[in-house]
Amino acid sequence: MKFLTSISAGLALVGSALTHPVFDELMIPNAPLKRAAQALKQVTNFGANTSKTKMYIYVPSKLAASPPIIVAIHYCTGTAQGYYNGSPYAQLADQKGFIVIYPESPYSGTCWDVSSKSALSHNGGGDSNSIANMVTYALDQYKGDASKVFVTGSSSGAMMTNVMAATYPELFAAGIAYSGTAAGCFLSQSGGVDQWNNSCAQGQARGTPQVWAKMVFDMYPNYNGSRPKMQIYHGSADNTLLPNNYNETIKQWAGVFGYDYTKPDSTKANSPQSGYTTYTWGDHLVGVYARGVGHTVPIRGSDDMTFFGL
Ligand SMILES: *[C@@H]1O[C@H](CO)[C@@H](O)[C@H](O)[C@H]1NC(C)=O
Ligand SMILES: *[C@@H]1O[C@H](CO)[C@@H](O)[C@H](O)[C@H]1NC(C)=O
Ligand SMILES: *[C@@H]1O[C@H](CO)[C@@H](O)[C@H](O)[C@H]1NC(C)=O
Ligand SMILES: *[C@@H]1O[C@H](CO)[C@@H](O)[C@H](O)[C@H]1NC(C)=O
User: What pTM was estimated for this model as a whole?
Assistant: First the structure.
């Protein structure tokens, strides 16, 4: 297939691939301090759903007049309910009146499909398409603010965050990826759906900013509108998705936005906390490299609100 060959042309795979599955290392992020006030609800009529992805939604009792929407995407072995319990977004929704969509993976092991051609294409019919349809449904149903739609996730959910930003740039104002991989890095040469990709996970898939950016552009050819600003978190002690995935993801978005990844505009040591370094490029890219932190970097709910402008 032309798409599959062109999308990965120029990527170098270095070193030898390991073969052990690593799903069991994926952990639940920070436990919330407080439970959300409302229960999570499943929505079964959100539109086309070729990949059979499930939609759950959190609607706070005090909804904003034109509510912003956050899509919060779980890790492998996770569920919508698990991410609702284990992430701070529903309690923040109680405070701020936005809606949270928690998609749920249809596959055994509940990783996301970030490997197939359909997942890596705008309106390709994969999980990314189903998640986009959930956003469109919620915007319509709750008169949401289309200029304030955000996406975030941990691990496999962070991979999907990058894929959503690449395949549906028109839908999102910002994305935050906690310990993921560059969009397209899990590409399966055989077209496999929901395939694990060891060379990417092990940090061996390396490309120039131009090659990584082309992958993003190829996922929605001829798109010329605005793109979400991105914040990329990764731990330097990540043994599941090796730390080089941070560097490749930064190269990807730097390539998309035309920044020189080697020259951030600002570098702040011990920010937002001791051992973390925050790098900022222009107004569209922030990298947070967390020294000594494994898989995954704990979610920073209040910082996320700041990045999203909520
Ligand atoms: C999507 O597929 C899931 C799993 O089969 C199902 O629970 C849900 O109702 C479907 N939703 C839509 C809108 O088709
Ligand atoms: C894993 O992804 C890379 C792109 O990052 C691709 O070149 C490689 O062929 C993929 N591996 C498999 C087994 O498909
Ligand atoms: C973007 O693409 C649309 C549709 O192809 C076109 O109408 C529009 O002029 C383009 N805008 C820019 C700034 O290139
Ligand atoms: C990846 O980025 C981090 C943070 O900027 C840096 O410390 C590290 O040396 C980089 N790794 C590689 C392989 O370039």
Answer: 0.93
